[in-house]
Amino acid sequence: MDNRGDFIQRLGLDISINILNLLDDPSDLVRACAVSRSWSRFVIENSLCKQLCLKLFPELSSVTHVIEVENLIEPVKVSAGGSPEWERLKRDNRVYAFFARGLTPLIKKDCIIEPISASSTDNYPDESIRNTLEPEDGIEFRASYWSSKGKSDPNVPEILTYKLVAQLCVVTEIQVQPFQAYFQYGFPIYSSKAVRFRLGYSRHPLELDDHIREDMLIHHRWSDNDFIWTYTSPEFPVAQENELQKFKLPEAVLCIGGILQVELLGRVQRQEMDGLYYICVSHVQVVGRPLSSPFDIDMLDSSGKCTLKYNPKTPCCQSVAQLLEGEADTPSRLRTFTTRLLQLLGNGPVGNNELDEEPPVL
Amino acid sequence: MSNTSENPNPSSSSAKMTLKTSDNELFEVEEAVAMKFCTVKQYFEDEKDSDVAARGSTTVIPLPNVHSAVLTMLISYGKKLPQSNAVADNHEEEETKKKERKKYEQGLLKNLMPGELLDLISAANYLDFKEGLEFFNQALADHIQNKSVEYVRKFFGIKNDYEPHEEEKYREEYAWAFEGIECWLIGELKQFMAKTKTLDIAGTLLGIKPALIVASFSVRGLNSLDSNILKPEMIAPGENILAAWINAIGPTGLDSNT
């Protein structure tokens, strides 16, 4: 091997970067790092995984500081004698590669997986927070909405807490639809005056038995200690309209921990029957990119730092086993298979579809 | 990169230009093609600005960084590019031209060794030949895209300087990047191993003799509203029809189906 074809050495910085930037799949860049040490150094030093990640998901540009500056994901520990700069670059490479592959390629509109609690609920379970996950106003013949308890003071806020579909999620927009009571005279709309959102993580793992869980859905006030909010949005005014109102966050936000709180500020609508102010919400939706399984994170401690992990489920490898006669469940088997295949097909000429002419016989 | 000592008189409007390669070969190239090499274009324009006028002689533009074998290919590729002043073709002509170009491009890349590909990229960059650079860059990237590490090492002639345990650890850490490649190969193989049948639709055929027989259960005779129209107004095959069904069982479960 004389490195005659090593384009990184021969063609210089700019062209080599242009060539590698033509690759759309982060797996290609990761495999390029495995080719040799010099290739790995080239990819890492020139932040190619970051460039690809930002190309795929431009909104992540507002999130890079969380990775690089705040050191929250795969936090770098500098070993004695190691170069901190290099360790950071290696870490960035890993995080951006995982993000490029693990974040959902299409923006998801339903990033909430389940409700955690409501600060108050009228007529549980008919008007439970669970209903806010249903986009329809009515299910069968029953209206689907959450209602707070009535208050005479219109300034009493309400808080809805939800769990997101993944522990790591890039959130771009949150949508809320107030509820219009179509069965009441005058069709009142029980919106709030304004809404504010918080994203963060739970200080302690949220493992609750069913009994406690139900209580929280009905009526729960969190203490300041329970959650750590890494992001608080500005206050958005809510229109008193029966519409799915879209509240676009000023910048995409990375939620590590997967907890969302919707703060409904200020009541506007009195119920004629009892003269009390209520807030009712028909639907809540979170728009963003979650880290989709088999990718996930492990929260390291209550500081909000986490590491990325990958839990392979191997559905692909099963088809390999079917095609080959033996079992191909270990990675090294797959490698020998690949090498054998390449030998069969021959190698050297540059033609693109080398599989074109010679159907391999196995 | 102009070499004024070697500069004979430029001409103002010759249709061909002469390029001299590093191994002293001369290439006569049409201006339209040569102008795609922006370095040449720049050189030519610089020369035009000078005062010397000449008739019947052409400038020889030196390309000391480009070998003749490489220039041959680049010129050949440049010629095949769609000309900017060409008349717009109709859709069919465009499709044929596209197919031809694709075939030509595949042929060009087919027997190209990696070292030659690098020479082409290097030269295209020197000549500032944007379309050529784009094309050959992509051709090179195609040898990394979706290819296994072994393939890349072999193709580019890269020595693996990782310790086995280092490499193993890396592959485990990024298992998701290495799984796909084997599956992609399986996918390609499956295409060959799958048996497929294609139906060729011949279209409308006129003048078939004898004419096909209308089935006994088809209506014939006069249209009840307008006796000038004879039935059948429209007709399609109705017996011995081949339709799709799953392998396990036919549509009715009988040995034969309607």
Explain what you see.
The complex is a heterodimer of chains A (362) and B (258). Chain A is α+β, with helices and mostly antiparallel strands and 362 residues long. Chain A folds into two domains: 3-103 and 300-356, no CATH class; 112-290, Galactose-binding domain-like (Jelly Rolls), CATH 2.60.120. Helices cover 27% and strands 27% of the residues of chain A. In chain A, strands 1, 5, 7, 8, 9 and 11 form a six-stranded antiparallel beta sheet that branches. Chain A starts with 6 loop residues before the first helix and ends in a 17-residue tail after the last helix. Mean pLDDT of chain A is 84; it is low at 314-333 and 346-362. With 258 residues, chain B is mainly alpha-helical. Chain B has three domains: 2-84 and 100-144, 2-Layer Sandwich (Potassium Channel Kv1.1, Chain A), CATH 3.30.710; 149-194, no CATH class; 202-258, no CATH class. Chain B has nine helices and five strands; from the N terminus they run E-E-H-H-E-H-H-H-H-H-H-H-E-E. In chain B, the strands form two sheets. Chain B has a three-stranded mixed beta sheet. In chain B, a hairpin with a 5-residue loop joins strand 1 and strand 2 (26-30). Residues 1-13 and 51-57 of chain B have low confidence and may be disordered. At the A-B interface, helix 1, helix 2, helix 3, helix 4 and helix 7 of A face helix 4, helix 5, helix 6, helix 7 and helix 8 of B.
Sum up the structure in keywords.
heterodimer; A: 362 residues; alpha+beta; Jelly Rolls; 2 domains; six-stranded antiparallel sheet; four-stranded antiparallel sheet; 16 strands; disordered C terminus; B: 258 residues; mainly alpha; Potassium Channel Kv1.1, Chain A; three-stranded mixed sheet; two-stranded antiparallel ribbon; 9 helices; 5 strands; 43% helix; At4g00755-like (chain A); F-box domain-containing protein (chain A); F-box_dom (chain A)
